[in-house]
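User: Need the bound-state model for magnesium ion:
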Amino acid sequence: MAVLKLEEIARDFSDGRQMRRVLFPTDAEFKPGALTVLSGPSGSGKTTLLSIMGLVLRPSEGSLYLDRREVTSVSDNEAAMLRLRNYGFVFQQPMLIDGLSVMENIALAFAVQGAGLPDDFLANGEGLLKSLGLEGTAHMQPRLLSGGMKQRASIARALIKDPAILLCDEPTSALDAESGQAVMTILKHIAIEEGRVVIVVSHDARVFPYADRLIKMENGTIVSDTRERYLEGKEVK
Ligand SMILES: Nc1ncnc2c1ncn2[C@@H]1O[C@H](COP(=O)(O)OP(=O)(O)OP(=O)(O)O)[C@@H](O)[C@H]1O
Ligand SMILES: [Mg+2]
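Assistant: Bound-state model below.
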């Protein structure tokens, strides 16, 4: 079943004088259990499309479905609730708060929802840290971690509420090659083994081999979409 479905989604922005179309009507659907890489040149509309899929930005036209429910015109409060329940977000910068421990940063995922911590929070948090190669960092300050470790901690924060959808905008762009590969291996596992929808925006060709599906954008339009499994850099049916 498609978890996310876009029908004729378009977006206009004002450039100060007039409205300009930055995303032309776009159809797409995303099912769990695959890692999709969304690529294309700077300004092609990748972040705009990802933000619309994440209910962070409203489309100017078209319909967005989350688990078959049309969510295009829900209220801002409802959009926030849907975001908090269904999505995890990972960005280029890990955006961890210094002064809080790694585990307290992860707990923020609940705090922003105004919810108390569930009884199993600490056990789940420790388990997540371990699975991300961050065992023993729960009480550390983020500034003591390497860039790759910080990014993995931000993935733990994104996953603590067990979201069906993980949206990542340039998650490896600020990392060295080795840390970038470690992050992509983790994101791939999260998609395939945990059965989530994982969408990674990246213009870095080094992430392409991890893609089950590679979508390319140019000038606000999807110009290619493999929908097929990539293995060892080769497309196979
Ligand atoms: N809030 C905004 N107001 C006006 N124009 C915007 C806004 N956000 C994005 N744009 C414009 O929309 C176009 C697409 O931007 P977008 O950020 O989606 O591109 P991108 O593919 O993510 O680029 P990059 O690789 O540089 O991150 C750009 O021309 C950008 O200037
Ligand atoms: Mg962008």
